[in-house]
Amino acid sequence: MKKVIAISCLAALMLTGCTKPNNNNDTESTTAAATTEAETTTEAVTTEEKTTTEAVTVLKEPDTEPLTEPFTESEETIKQRREMFYADVRPMLKLYFDKLLEGNGGHAYMEYTFYDVDKCTVPEVIIKEGNSEAEFTIHVFREDGFDGMYQIGEFGGGHTALCYDADTDKLVLAWAQMGAMNISSLDMVDYKLKEVTSDEKKLAPDEEIDDILAEENIKKLAYISVYKPDEESAGYSIIHHADGTEERKEELYFEFFE
């Protein structure tokens, strides 16, 4: 899947007029076309007594067509790209979880969600995995355009919620533990997802984390957790909706959701 970059250029030249008072205190006005391009040439004017040179202004009609037509993708094209993306993501998520099971002796825990980090209409895949809060790690993957994924960011995930800033649309990591809190804003830097701001806070005894996030206009992302406690168990999944409600699936669930 190839990404298309649209470049739009706009040029505008303006000629303004002026007024000049004469010696009789009358005002003689000259007119000018504010939106007309002008060319100035020199013409020789010959009289019986002498030859002088004066400026002659040649007016041209402004261009009626833009220099470059802006490129936009149709809604149908964007929809097709997203559908292809999610078709590629399903087997990738299952394969990732299978690798975790293999490395952990038949048990594994994983969370996954999606967010359009680079604003190209196709989201990135965000996976949080580990066996405890001390081990949780967050990985962010981007589609490579050839039915594959590559990692663009990795962050500590213990006691951390995946969020986004409703004002800037940036991905946000909200960490909190024992009365301390940190809100990190992430953005693309040199083709990698990196922390660009970090805001440390102290929670008062009567303050809740969700209250602080609401004040900052930061929203939690919906996500799916997938868990298999041992080799004999079939495992299960939970859809964690953005409004705080949950939906349990008696299976290892790797389907797209919104």
UniProtKB/TrEMBL annotation:
Compositional bias per record (Low complexity), positions renumbered to this chain: 27-45
Annotated region (Disordered), positions in chain: 19-53
Domain of life: Bacteria
Entry protein name: Uncharacterized protein
Lineage of source species: Bacteria, Bacillati, Bacillota, Clostridia, Eubacteriales
